[in-house]
Write a structure and sequence with these properties.
Chain A: One of its GO terms (biological process) is cell division. Chain A: One of its GO terms (molecular function) is protein phosphatase inhibitor activity. Chain A: It is found in: Cytoplasm. The structure holds two protein chains of two kinds. Helices cover 37% and strands 0% of the residues of chain A. Chain A is mainly α. Chain A has a domain of 34 residues. The relative contact order of chain A is 0.08. Chain B is an all-beta fold. Chain B has a single domain, classed as YVTN repeat-like/Quinoprotein amine dehydrogenase (Methylamine Dehydrogenase, Chain H), CATH 2.130.10. Chain B has two helices and 32 strands. In chain B, the strands form nine sheets. Chain B has a four-stranded antiparallel beta sheet with strand order 1-32-31-30, with no helix packed on it. Chain B has a four-stranded antiparallel beta sheet with strand order 2-3-4-5, with no helix packed on it. Classes of the chains: A mainly alpha, B mainly beta. At the A-B interface, helix 2 and helix 3 of A face strand 5, strand 7, helix 1 and helix 2 of B.
């Protein structure tokens, strides 16, 4: 019976795959590489729609900041940042600590 | 010089550590590349903040025969700045992806440094004299009224405190749509290649407004994209030959004499996969993160997530040697995928012995001759000079012996991705997240 169990032993990679699919059932049919490839190519991409932003600014003069719900037309999706949301990019004027 | 006399294993000792002690690591201080120059006298590091720091080895003190010269700061400069491409709405990181030294031709030193989009040629020169005794200028630079000059003198050069200056001599920009992962200087010392995810370009070191595309794997329809370029390197001796590795674990060797566009490889190196082992993770962990030629150019070494492979250029269908770096991680792939560690890009280097990094600030060495391997740790706890580093051991499962560390206790935030080996001596540079360790072999 021991030998039979060994034959049915799941390779560690497959066992890990089963764990992952159990946690994320919607994980794509495609092998793990593809989605990650597209993400890699899009690194650094920031989306900003100036039209939407200006419209929203104009309408918001007299209102509070909109919530994501009923006022969906004021903000295009929740992934598109406004300039305030973008982190400020500063160049490193400080010397590296390796040189300290 | 390496194990040549009887195959004695090298005993590594702590020599120096550079960088901040505190645990709170500023993003800019994350080391992103480490490279010795051709003589080993200079050691350069690049970081996420776009800065380059160059260390210089002290001249050997004849009375101190027990250790080799220490490395001290020689020069530091801001190589790249963050940019924003407004046309493409793309944020361009200043992180230095790679540094490559040019061989020294005159008194100055030259290196290429690159971020995701732009390669720069930097000249590092020393100034240890300055002219004094001008007739029309005071020592502080103010101009003298010519009518007050009554006698003439000949200006002379007088010694001054050494000043090391870095200046950008060439800027190679606007040739990469995707993110540059590699640069490699050709053995002709006139040209170099730069590789991004989908394309490889050939440059002349003197010419910045033109670049030749030599590899283009961009599919006509991006939906069909299955593979990207992960690393590229010129052959050390053959100036028309280069290799590039892919995210699918293949290496292609190309010969520029065959055609102007090397989309068709001359050789394809790929280890056949065991279909019964295939899983969701197979392709991800087969992605090659680094490729390095041997000095002779007869062999090349590749690093994928779990192993290092040595390939004979004459044999395409499988590697001649495979070394497991941290096989115990194979049964942790699910959590390594969730915390993104499975995408970490480890580099490798060799000097007869293969060296590569791992987690928990461990790094691994494989002796190809004796087939012995060792795991060492870069830690400030081991920082007594000339004390031999103690080998570490990870316990995969079951009973953990004393001094062993279990897989689940490994710190996956402490990654050694970048290491470098001195070209001539047994000195190695190992970068942890924000510190640079230098180890040497025990002399005597």
């Amino acid at each position: 019976q021991d030998a039979q169990e060994k034959d049915r032993a799941i390779p560690p990679e497959r066992a890990e795959e089963a764990k992952l699919k159990a946690k994320y059932p919607s994980l794509g049919q495609r092998p793990g590489g593809s989605d990650f490839l597209m993400k890699r190519l899009q690194k650094g991409q920031k989306y900003f729609d100036s039209g939407d932003y200006n419209m929203a600014k104009a309408k918001m003069k007299n209102k509070q900041l909109p919530s994501a719900g009923p006022d969906k037309n004021l903000v295009t999706g929740d992934h598109i940042p406004t300039p305030q949301d973008l982190p400020q990019r500063k160049s490193s004027l400080v010397t590296s600590k390796l040189a300290g | 010089f390496l194990g040549a006399g009887g195959g004695n294993d090298i005993q590594w000792c702590f020599s120096q550590v550079k960088g901040a002690v505190d645990d709170d690591v500023a993003e800019a201080d994350i080391i992103s590349t480490v490279e010795f120059n051709h003589s080993g006298e200079l050691l350069a590091t690049g970081d996420k903040g776009g800065r380059v720091v160059i260390f210089q080895q002290e001249q050997e003190n004849k009375t101190q025969s027990h250790s080799r010269g220490e490395y001290n700061v020689y020069s530091t400069f801001q190589s790249h700045e963050p940019e924003f491409d407004y046309l493409k709405s793309l944020e361009i990181e200043e992180k230095i992806n790679k540094i490559r030294w040019l061989p020294q031709k005159n008194a100055a030193q030259f290196l290429l440094s690159t971020n995701d989009k732009t390669i720069k040629l930097w000249k590092i020169s020393e100034r240890d004299k300055r002219p004094e005794g001008y007739n029309l200028k005071e020592e502080d630079g103010r101009y003298r009224d010519p009518t007050t000059v009554t006698t003439l003198r000949v200006p002379v050069f007088r010694p001054m405190d050494l000043m090391v200056e870095a200046s950008p001599r060439r800027i190679f920009a606007n040739a990469h749509t995707y993110h540059i992962n590699s640069i490699s200087i050709n053995s002709d010392y006139e040209t170099y290649l730069s590789a991004d995810d989908l394309r490889i370009n050939l440059w002349h070191l003197e010419i910045t407004d033109r670049s030749f595309n030599i590899v283009d794997i961009k599919p006509a329809n991006m939906e069909e994209l299955t593979e990207v370029i992960t690393a590229a390197e010129f052959h050390p001796n053959s100036c028309s030959t280069f290799v590039y590795s892919s995210s699918k674990g293949t290496i292609r060797l190309c010969d520029m004499r065959a055609s102007a566009l090397c989309d068709r490889h001359s050789k394809l190196f790929e280890e056949p996969e065991d279909p019964s082992n295939r899983s969701f993770f197979s392709e991800i962990i087969s992605s090659i993160s680094d490729v390095k030629f041997s000095h002779s150019g007869r062999y090349m070494m590749t690093r994928d997530y779990l192993s290092v492979k040595i390939w004979d250029l004459n044999m395409e269908n499988r590697p001649v040697e495979t070394y497991q770096v941290h096989e115990y991680l194979r049964s942790k792939l699910c959590s390594l995928y969730e915390n993104d560690c499975i995408f970490d890009k480890f580099e490798c280097c060799w000097n007869g012995i293969v060296m590569t990094g791992s987690y928990n600030n461990f790094f691994r060495m494989f002796d190809r001759n004796s087939k012995r391997d060792v795991t060492l740790e870069a830690s400030r706890e081991n920082n007594k000079p000339r004390t031999v580093l103690k080998p570490r051991k990870v316990c995969a499962s079951g009973k953990r012996k004393k001094d062993e560390i279990s897989v689940d206790s490994l710190d996956f935030n402490k990654k050694i991705l970048h290491t470098a080996w001195h070209p001539k001596e047994n000195i190695i540079a190992v970068a942890t997240t924000n510190n640079l360790y230098i180890f040497q072999d025990k002399m005597n």
